[in-house]
Amino acid sequence: MMKNNAHSLRLGSGRLGAAAEKIWRDKILYLMLLPTLIYFFIFRVWPILNMRLAFYDYKARGPWEFAGLKYFEMLFKSPAFAQILTNTVIISFMKYVLLFPAFVIFALVLNELRVQKFRKYVQVVSYLPHFLSWVVIAGIWKSFLAPSDNSAINIIIGLFGHDAVDLLTDKGAIRWVLMFCEAWRSLGWDSIIFYTAIISISSDIYEAAALDGASRKDIIFHIILPELLIPMTTVFILNLGFFMSAGFDQVYNFTNSSVNSTIDILDTYVNRIGIENSQYSLGTAVSLIKGVVGVILVYFTHITSKKLTGEGVW
User: Fold this and answer.
1) pLDDT at 196 (0 to 100)
2) DSSP one-letter code for 162
């Protein structure tokens, strides 16, 4: 027994020595990676460790005092929180569920374009908005949707004999504005994984289908879409992890006093009470709820997908 333990220790020390030697040999690469690791530790790992603040009274100096579920009770008793939660669920549903088929359809359309130069042009143009900040995107859309008579949207509407509209202050339209704005930004980028899956299908399958007399519609429904089932399932499940994050950057840049009650979401609520009003414990409680709900949604969607299709995230 002692010999086996000694042998295991030697193997362990040997592996550690080999790992240390490899790290030292590639030290330049690890130094290049260091800023990224520091960033993720500060802005991802450290906040998770301090989620305990949701159960404590925050103090800038001295130890935090345990408060139990005090801040969660405050949240669920607040009528404003119910409205904010509803806004978050509706906007997230529009972004992550209603928009999801559009990414798959766009990938199918790209694949059907037969002129290669035109296809590449469409790809590049559709990818570009993803690299713009929401400040820039909001500026573009606000200019397009401005209430003035000479804005692009009102010029188009005027051609059909209708009066000018102000969609940016319309409570019934602002959520749809957010949805179409998100589609414009993400359509090309989020379709990449589906387009990659399509072009990875062997040409032999297409040739065999053509010999059997399959139409283009048959190929799409019986060859391409079944191949997309696994990436579609995986992406959809992962998207649900962000379901309680309806997009702070976008909403913050589009909000105004006229529509704030309609698009005020959990992230803007956390910013308002946690940062602007310095109620750190209350803001942390909201963030903790978001994280827990996201994990639960991913887990149960994964289980459901495994039962229905045999595939999941892991």
Assistant:
1) 92
2) P
Q: Show the low-confidence residues of the chain (pLDDT under 70).
A: 1-14, 308-314
- Which tokens belong to 128? 């570009």
Q: What is the pLDDT of residue 9?
A: 47
Q: How far apart are the first and last CA of the chain?
A: 38
The Cα–Cα gap between 26 and 49 comes to 31
Range 195-199, long-range pairs (CB < 8 A, 24+ positions): 195/107, 195/110, 195/111, 197/227, 197/228, 197/231, 198/107, 198/108, 198/111, 198/224, 198/227, 198/228, 199/111
Amino acid of residue 34: L
Could you tell me what percentage of the chain is helix, strand and coil, using 3-state DSSP and rounding each to the nearest 5? 75, 0, 20
CA distance 97 to 224: 21
- Pick the closest to residue 247 from 95, 85, 75 (CA basis): 95
Q: Are 104 and 230 in contact (CB under 8 A)?
A: no
pLDDT of residue 313: 57
State the DSSP code for 277: S
Global confidence as pTM: 0.82
Q: What is the DSSP letter of 243?
A: T
- The sign of the torsion formed by the CA atoms of 164, 169, 170, 174 equals positive
Asked whether the beta carbons of 263 and 91 are under 8 A apart, the reply is yes
User: How far is CA 27 from each of CA 24, 31, 32, 34, 39, rounded to the nearest angstrom?
Assistant: 5, 6, 9, 10, 19
Spatial distance between the Cα atoms of 137 and 134, rounded to a whole number of angstroms:
5
pLDDT at 174: 93
Which residue spans within the chain are E strands per DSSP? 56-57, 65-66
Distance in angstroms (rounded) separating the CA atoms of residues 86 and 262: 9
What's the pLDDT tens digit per position in 63-88? Answer: 888 888 888 998 888 888 889 999 99
Using CA atoms, how far apart are residues 226 and 314, in angstroms rounded to an integer?
A: 19
